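Entry:
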Amino acid sequence: MKKSLLKKALGLVAALWLAAAPASAQLKPHRAPGDAVFQGNLYGVVVSSNETPFPGVGLYRLNSDLSRDLLLQNNYMSGSAAVCIRGKLYVTTAMAYGSIVVANTIYMFDAEKYVSLGSYGIPTNKANMAVGYAYDSMNDKAYAITYNSNGSSFMLNNFNYEKRSYSPICSVNETFIALTFAPDGTLYAIDKNGVVKTLSLTDGATEEVVNTGLASTYFQSAAYSPKDNAIIWIACPATGSRQIVKIDPVAKTWEKLSDYTDEVMGLYTTDVMGIDGAPARPTDIEVSYADPGTNSATVSMTVPSVTFDGKALSGEIDVEVTVDGNSDSRATGKAQAGSDYSIDVDMQSAGAHRLVIFFAT
């Protein structure tokens, strides 16, 4: 379904992805076994396909031989933008007549158990119509591009995925069709002319990286694949065939990997994101409370002794623990590589919490 356009190295966070077994529906591979087009584990919402039979709109695993596995079929996934955050898929759909928005909904799905989690109505105005999302998994922050209040241009927003709300950061004076974060926290955006740019998270300023020349007339998706060490973009250009494109933002190069049949929204990977040379993940993580019923807790762990790319790590490492992404609950300290380490944190309130552990060298 086409959506027309209106005008210091951080280590790995302590988070785990658990993938459930996929459904049995599978389309035939287009490549011989072992002839991989890309290396990463990629997933996304397929909203249309040039290939028949097509099982329908839904969440698919996109295999490196260009086959795909249907994980969850649901027509409500055919929206204007999608993003997977911490194992949950958010899909935005909207209905507008001119400048009047009559319906605006976020549908949620469990991207690990492959079930629907319900739908949530959000304010019916242009400023809440998302056309693109990007999730920074290294910092556990999500962003969205929406229209401005009158629909004449676009805004960059923080996306509070727990409250399903947007808070504006700055104006965006260009039309971007795909967004993705690199492990170093750089936001890359592909504009309607196929130009890959960096996009500032503070003032919306851009800087050209590489021009693919693949101009398009509707919104698409891209994802940084750590196994490919590159951005993978499923491009649907205005002329020519759909194709899988590999973009190296460091070398500032791009290449067409293969023709493709599908239009994919909300492309994402379940591969661990990290930076070569940065600390790997901690192990043996435990949380204990000083007294039952209190908010004071101690987080214990074994500090990594190797880097993300498997090299020996030694010396002192900076440690930071956040609770529910709240800077007021942040605890910091220093630890020796490979040591057993404990740090006290304030949970702020009773109930379930998400702890994120950062390491830095």
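The two ends are 45 Å apart (CA to CA).
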